[in-house]
Amino acid sequence: MDRPDCDPLLLERTYAQFPLVNRFVSGWRQVYVALIRPALPRNRTGTILDIGCGGGDITRNLFRWATADGFDVRVVGIDPDARAHDYAVRSAAKAGIDPTLLEFRRAASSELVSRGERFDVVVSNHVLHHLGPVELAGVFADTERLARTLAIHSDIRRRRSALVFFGLATLPLDRSSYIRRDGLTSIRRSFTADELSRVVRPEWHVYSPGLYRNLAVWHAPAALP
Ligand SMILES: C[S@@+](CC[C@H](N)C(=O)[O-])C[C@H]1O[C@@H](n2cnc3c(N)ncnc32)[C@H](O)[C@@H]1O
């Protein structure tokens, strides 16, 4: 799906199937409750940035959960891919969400750094395994400059059994989208917990909730309990 010449119909269906896959494998509700909710301010507008938001389903969920919890919050999802950006904008409009509160921008993290933007919480999902060593170091450095309080990069943890289970569970989707093929490639490219611990910067901590997930977490020095 990363190829510029990929089939537009299969790509559209892939974005449409991401919410289903993310709901089962990504565990963002637990991450929101345990880490993000306690880090959001109650006395002013809070801000969340989702780097590499793709079709924007996790961005939308973070906005919904924070709003339902009574936070005055502004959420931004960025992705340099025009097709992902277009899908995310359309989905939020279809859901009737105010674009001044949930905004999607076609941009890379470095562009927001250049503009000096800051957010209370910065997150990403399934971005790390996409990046080469130089880009990876860049995204970690960008994240520290963009996050005021907390940053969380969540990604697949590579295990052989993940290939088996994901391969079987997504068999029915095989011909309808890129989910199965790209998902298996993503699992193969992803990090073990040890590998991720070796590539994060010193102030980051790697946690492995469940069998198939790595979280790289950073607290701004002044925000530490
Ligand atoms: C596998 S997709 C993940 C999409 C979405 N987060 C999800 O979980 O469904 C990875 C995305 O990261 C984006 N990306 C890669 N490097 C980035 C950067 N430096 N800043 C913002 N987005 C980036 C890519 O364009 C791609 O759409």
Characterization of the model:
With 225 residues, the protein is an alpha/beta fold. It has a single domain, classed as 3-Layer(aba) Sandwich (Rossmann fold), CATH 3.40.50. It has helices at 8-25, 28-39, 57-68, 82-94, 109-114, 133-146, 160-169, 179-189, 193-199, and strands spanning 46-51, 73-78, 102-105, 119-125, 147-156, 205-207, 213-219. A 7-stranded mixed sheet has the order 3-2-1-4-5-7-6, with helices on both faces. Strand 1, helix 3 and strand 2 form a beta-alpha-beta unit. Helix 7 (160-169) packs antiparallel against helix 8. The relative contact order is 0.15. The mean pLDDT is 93. The structure holds S-adenosylmethionine (SAM). The site of S-adenosylmethionine has 19 residues, from helix 1.
Précis, in short:
This protein has 225 residues and is of the alpha/beta class.
Main pleated sheet = 7 strands, mixed
Number of domains: 1
CATH architecture: 3-Layer(aba) Sandwich
Spatial gap, N to C terminus: 41 Å
Question: What's the total number of strands?
Answer: 7
Helix and strand pattern: HHEHEHEHEHEHHHEE
Please report the number of helical segments.
9
Q: Tell me the β content.
A: 15-25%
Q: Any idea what the shape is?
A: globular
Mean pLDDT: 93
Q: What is the CATH superfamily?
A: Vaccinia Virus protein VP39
Query: Rg from C-alpha positions?
Result: 17 Å
CATH class: Alpha Beta
Roughly what percent helix?
A: 40-55%
Counting helices, strands and paired strands, the structural category is: alpha/beta
Bound molecules: S-adenosylmethionine
Fill in the CATH topology: Rossmann fold
Sheet with the most strands: spatial strand order? 3-2-1-4-5-7-6
Low-confidence stretches: none
